[in-house]
Amino acid sequence: MPTGRVKWFSLEKGFGFIENDEGEDVYLASSSLPQGVSTIKPGTKLEFSIADSRKGPQAMSVHIIDAPPSLAEGSRVNPDDLAAMIEDTIKILDRVGNGLRHGRHPAGPEAERLGRVLRGIASQLEA
Fold first, then answer.
1. Residue 5 pairs with which residues in a beta bridge?
2. Residue 119, C-beta contacts closer than 8 angstroms, at least 6 positions apart
3. Has domain 3-66 been given CATH number 2.40.50.140?
């Protein structure tokens, strides 16, 4: 079976491309990913079969051989710092919650900033 690495993949578009070992692009549909896998990172080494489609070669029966290392794991925040960030975030959320009880939604920039903080903390917890 041919092998190659994921060149790019878009969850929103539902497809991406693999660069096979010969340097050719192979179409990768989300429906060809292994069961339970909805997206895949660039650089992931795959084994797959190829079917000819009207768009050119298409990957079928995809198997993940080797996933690239997670950058998040290498950039984890010190646990004491993360605990302090969570405590500060709780205070911010308490203030936002009190505002909501009085009919005040956070303003656009404040809501965006809070969303970024929450996503950052979530990524640190999931890494």
1. 19, 45
2. none
3. yes
